[in-house]
Structures are given as structure tokens and as C-alpha cells.
Write a structure and sequence with these properties.
Elements (H helix, E strand, L loop, with lengths): L19 H8 L34 E6 L4 E4 L6 E4 L8 H14 L7 E5 L5 E6 L11 E4 H4 L10 H11 L3 H18 L10 E5 L2 E4 L8 H4 L19 H10 L4 H13 L1 H9 L5 H18 L4 E4 L2 E4 L1
Antiparallel strand pairs: 1-2, 1-3, 3-5, 4-5, 6-7, 7-8, 9-10
Bound molecules: adenosine-5'-triphosphate (ATP) and magnesium ion.
Magnesium ion (MG) binds next to loops.
């Protein structure tokens, strides 16, 4: 079996485990940096809240950058360019899971920041993503999560319709951002990401122009938490047992052109094999890969029930 790049998860023929282009996109040069520390050496957690039984809050992370002289990753509370997430003991393989899910978003041509897996000093892989709220010259780009935008008090209380409404109210490019948002919602359902709370959606703001921030924190929480509901924020008033009709209701609420919505569904269906492949070739251990594949299979069956055929104006039932 051909080796897979630890950034994009596509086959890699070069020596080593990364495409030069993937390393360049992430680090500005085609060399993989060394990480001279392990998870236990991380400075104090950036977040400590654990108000909800979920993956968020329990995961330690560090703000880092590449030291150009030593070729090593170093902690950098100020002036960081990347976020590093080690493997939590409670959630084995979570970095590989996040990398796989981001790769799936990438495969669907979503706006995904450069990311990859790198061995820490103890050999365990961590996930590293480039900060999208930093410009190439180090300047800050303002980012605001939907928790802030909506003035919420609980990041798990709210609806995806209200996030869509905020996009329609503030985004410079409402049409594109709304479709992008809708497709991310579909993908999250398909991968079993039930943890998209209000802090996992954000705007990037340049001057007075707001745009949906790139994809972040995509994981299949369903693989880790068996009782995980379908969605953290409600869709069509529901948090669980979602059906195709609920997503069609969301599309309507978002005022998507029916043809655009049909396109988005078709795009997801067309990517089924690709997503399965990315799960199978992920760095997860074999039993988790299988569980992930099972979640994908179940979700695709639910979103695309047998008996539905697509026609030009949307969906017809046979
Ligand atoms: N690539 C990125 N660039 C800039 N900011 C980011 C990036 N990825 C995540 N963030 C910001 O950092 C916060 C935490 O990251 P993330 O959601 O990936 O981790 P988490 O473990 O779920 O953390 P939390 O428990 O705080 O939700 C996000 O809410 C987001 O605002
Ligand atoms: Mg998060």
C-alpha cells in the first residue's frame, strides 16, 4: 500500500511521509519541523472549561511557531502562527481524526487552512493547523465566533438557522457563504460531527467586511461518544434523528435557491467514495477506521435514502 501524506492523506511517492507542496503550504518551506517536546510538556491549557460532555474543553492545545534557525516547533504565546493539538489520553487518535475530517472538507473544496500530523518527542502524532487569523506579515485578522456575534450565553444553545441568519445579516458575500455554510452542515452530519457549537463557527472580519472563517474543529465526535446526538445546534428544531427533510427545511430557511441546494446534496453524494477512502487511509487505528466508515455509511443512507431520485428541480420520490 502506497504511503499517504501526513498532511493531505493522498498517496505520496516521494521519500518520507509528506508532499513538499503540503509542507510548503503549512510551514513556508518543504521541510518537516522537529517537535522537541511531548504532550506532557505543554504550557497551561488554553481552555479549561468542561461544562459539557464533549470533546471540546478537555483538549489541551498550544500556540506555536517554527523556529527558522533550529528547524524546531516552539511554544509562542505571543507571535504564534500555528495551533498544535496533541493526542488526549481520553480520545485516542483524535489528531488523526481531525486531520482526516479536515482532509474530507478539503476534498469537497471547502476553505480549509493548511494542516497536518507531526510526531512529538515521544513519537505520538499531534495535529497542527496554520492560524487563519494571522496574515503572512504576522498582522492580526479579527475573528469573531458566532457565540460572540449572537451574544449567546451557552455555546450549546441555539440553532443553525440563527447562525445562517447572522451570515445573511453580516457576510459580504451572502450567496457564497450561505452555500458554504449549508455544505459544511451536510458534511458535519455525514461524518458524525455532533459538536459544532456556537464557538465552532466564526467570521473573519477585514475592515467592515465579514466572511465565514475557514473550517476548523471538524471531528467525528460520534465515533468517540456513542450517545452523541446528530447536531449540537438544532436544525428544524431538532437535535437528533435528523432526516433528509430537516436539511431541506434548513436550505429553505437559508433562502437557498432550490437548484443550489440540490447541487449541494449531489456534491455530497458524489463524494461518498472519496470520504470513505479518506477514513480508510487515515492514521486512525484499524478498529476506529472501521467505526468511522460505519458512521459514514449510516449517515449517507440517512441523507440519501433509497427510493429518492434527483430530478432537475430538486427531489422526486419514486
Ligand atoms: N486554524 C485556526 N486559526 C485561528 N483560530 C483557530 C483555528 N482553529 C481554531 N481556532 C480558534 O481556536 C478555538 C479553539 O480551537 P478548536 O475549536 O479547534 O479546539 P477545541 O479543542 O474544540 O477548543 P475549545 O474547547 O476551546 O472549543 C476555536 O474556537 C477558534 O476560535
Ligand atoms: Mg472548538
Amino acid at each position: 500500500m502506497a504511503a499517504r501524506c501526513l498532511c493531505c492523506q493522498q498517496p505520496v511517492s516521494e521519500d518520507g511521509r509528506y508532499h513538499a507542496r503540503c509542507l510548503k503550504a503549512l510551514w513556508g518551506k518543504a521541510a518537516a519541523p522537529r517537535i522537541p517536546f511531548a504532550a506532557k510538556d505543554l504550557p497551561d491549557k488554553v481552555t479549561t472549561s468542561a461544562e459539557h460532555m464533549s470533546i471540546s474543553g478537555v483538549q489541551a492545545k498550544a500556540l506555536v511557531r517554527l523556529n527558522e534557525d533550529s528547524g524546531e516547533v516552539e511554544f509562542s504565546p505571543a507571535g504564534s502562527t500555528h495551533i498544535l493539538k496533541p493526542e488526549p489520553n481520553e480520545y485516542p487518535g483524535l489528531p488523526a481524526m481531525e486531520n482526516a475530517c479536515m482532509g474530507m472538507a478539503d476534498a469537497l473544496a471547502m476553505n480549509v487552512p493548511p494542516h497536518g500530523l507531526f510526531p512529538m518527542a515521544d513519537g505520538r502524532l499531534c495535529y497542527i493547523v496554520k492560524r487563519f487569523d494571522r496574515a503572512d506579515d504576522g498582522g492580526k485578522i479579527q475573528s469573531e465566533t458566532m457565540f460572540q456575534v449572537l451574544g449567546a450565553e451557552d455555546k450549546y444553545k441555539g440553532s443553525l438557522e440563527s447562525v445562517g441568519k447572522a451570515i445573511r445579516a453580516h457576510a459580504e458575500n451572502v450567496g457564497l457563504d450561505t452555500i458554504d455554510f449549508f455544505e459544511r452542515v451536510l458534511l458535519c452530519f455525514l461524518i458524525g460531527n455532533g459538536d459544532m457549537h456556537l464557538k465552532n463557527w466564526a467570521f473573519l472580519i477585514r475592515g467592515k467586511k465579514a466572511a465565514l472563517a475557514p473550517v476548523y474543529d471538524f471531528v467525528s465526535s460520534k465515533v468517540y461518544i456513542k450517545r452523541e446526538s446528530d447536531t449540537a445546534l438544532t436544525i428544524n428544531g431538532k437535535g437528533d434523528k435528523l432526516q433528509r427533510a430537516d436539511f431541506e427545511g434548513l436550505a429553505k430557511n437559508l433562502k437557498l435557491d432550490p437548484r443550489a441546494a440540490a447541487n449541494s446534496f449531489a456534491k455530497m453524494k458524489g463524494a461518498q467514495e472519496k470520504l470513505r477512502e479518506l477514513a480508510i487511509y487515515s492514521e486512525l487505528d484499524p478498529s476506529m477506521r472501521q467505526e468511522f466508515e460505519d458512521v459514514l455509511g449510516e449517515r449517507f443512507r440517512r441523507l440519501f435514502p433509497v427510493g429518492n431520485i434527483h430530478c432537475e428541480n430538486g427531489l422526486a420520490r419514486v
